[in-house]
Amino acid sequence: MTIAADKDAARVAAYDRRAEAQAAAGPGQGARLAELLARHRGVPLAGYLPIRTEIDPLPAMAEAAAHGPVAVPIIEAPATPLRFARWEPGMALVEGPFRTRRPEVMDWVVPRILIVPLLAFTRDGFRLGYGGGFYDRTLAALRAEAPVLAIGFAFAGQEVAEVPLEETDEPLDLIVTEREVIDTAPGGYSAERLRRT
C-alpha cells in the first residue's frame, strides 16, 4: 500500500474512534484548553468552528476573544495555505467549502497560536488530518516567518500508537485533550518563546 492508501484506511478507523470518544465525553471538555490559552492572552489565536464529531473549542475561543484577536480558518483554494479571518462570539457566519462556516466579513489575522483539529494523534505530536494538507502547508509557511504554537485539540480516545507519515507532515507542539496536556516539543515547549519576538 502507498502512504496515501494507508492514510485513507487510518481515517476510516479514526472517524469511528472519534465518534465513540465524543459520545462518551462528559462536560468541561475544553477546560484544559482554556487554562492553556490563558497563559497567552493577547497573542493572535486561530481556532476552528467544529464540524461533525470534532471536539468543541468555542468556549475557550470565546474566553480568549475577550483579551485579543481570535480567528478561524478560511480555505481559499486547493493545495494552498489557509488564511484566517477574525471571529467573535455571536457574529454572522456564512457557508464555506467542505461544510465549513466562515465570517460574513473578512478581517484577516496572522495567528501565532493555532488550535488544530484532527482525526487521530500520536503522543509524539503527529496528527492524522482530513487529507487536504491545509494545516501542514499553513504551519510550514507560518513557522518560516515567526515562532508558532500548534496545539492539537482532541478527545483522549483519538490517541493512536502511530499514524502514516509523509515528509510534509508538520508536528504539533502540544496536544490538549479533556484529560491532559501533552507536551511534544523537544526539551519541552517554552511559553516564553512567543513573548520574545
From TrEMBL:
Q: Which GO molecular function terms does the record list?
A: 5-formyltetrahydrofolate cyclo-ligase activity; ATP binding; metal ion binding
Q: Answer yes or no on keyword Hydrolase.
A: no
A Pfam family reported for this protein in Swiss-Prot or TrEMBL: 5-FTHF_cyc-lig
BP GO annotations: folic acid-containing compound biosynthetic process; tetrahydrofolate interconversion
Q: Which Gene3D superfamilies match?
A: NagB/RpiA/CoA transferase-like
Q: From the UniProt annotation, give the residues forming the signal peptide.
A: none
Q: Catalyzes what? A: (6S)-5-formyl-5,6,7,8-tetrahydrofolate + ATP = (6R)-5,10-methenyltetrahydrofolate + ADP + phosphate
- Quote the EC number: 6.3.3.2
Q: Which parts of the chain span the membrane according to its record? A: none
Asked if the keyword Acetylation belongs to this entry, the reply reads no
Needed co-factor(s): Mg(2+)
Q: Sorted alphabetically, which InterPro entries does this protein's record hold? A: FTHF_cligase, FTHF_cligase-like_sf, NagB/RpiA_transferase-like
Keywords, in A-Z order: ATP-binding, Ligase, Magnesium, Metal-binding, Nucleotide-binding
- Taxonomically, the superkingdom here is Bacteria
Give the UniProt family note.
Answer: Belongs to the 5-formyltetrahydrofolate cyclo-ligase family.
Q: What is this protein called?
A: 5-formyltetrahydrofolate cyclo-ligase
Species this protein is from = Pseudoroseicyclus tamaricis
